[in-house]
Write a structure and sequence with these properties.
mainly alpha; 5 helices; 85% helix
Length: 159
């Protein structure tokens, strides 16, 4: 995946695009939940794995562009936004490390009882990841995005 960032994209357009990506991610999470409910855990893992690079690029863009404008023009109001952006660490950790461990656990042959226990544990971990990410997206849309727009407009009004 290409992590190049378009620094020419206006912040307001970028935020609209990021919101659209949240909607797309949400629709994919529903597919993951459906797979979990149908006990097709490997399909749920594959769907998240396929989405992981897009989520990471999304996070990189938010940090590179939105936090930049916030730190330059609204630093005194940035504490909550910084905390929200720091959540990207656990998102990336889950996608790059935890998901790989989960795949390994699922793919090892176990007795049926142990396999069921592992699958239940994995279902819980994936559901928790999705719930936390949904909450994260909500925080971004309620706190980070409005502050970035405010900081960008204050910069534009100065110029």
């Amino acid at each position: 995946m290409n992590y190049r960032i378009n620094f020419d994209e206006p912040i307001s357009q970028m935020i609209q695009r990021l919101k659209q990506e949240h909607v797309y991610f949400e629709s994919t999470f529903k597919k993951v939940e459906k797979s979990i409910n149908e006990n097709t855990i490997k399909e749920a893992i594959k769907t998240i794995h396929d989405l992981s690079e897009s989520i990471i690029k999304h996070a990189v863009e938010e940090e590179a562009r939105l936090m930049r404008v916030i730190m330059h023009n609204a630093k005194e109001e940035s504490a909550d936004s910084i905390k929200i952006m720091q959540e990207h660490n656990w998102v990336v950790d889950f996608l790059k490390h935890k998901l790989q461990n989960i795949e390994g656990e699922i793919n090892i042959q176990h007795s049926q009882q142990i396999q069921q226990q592992i699958e239940e544990k994995v279902k819980g971990e994936i559901n928790e990841f999705i719930a936390n990410l949904r909450n994260h997206f909500s925080e971004e849309e309620q706190i980070v995005f409005p502050l970035a727009l405010k900081a960008d407009s204050s910069y534009l009004n100065k110029g």
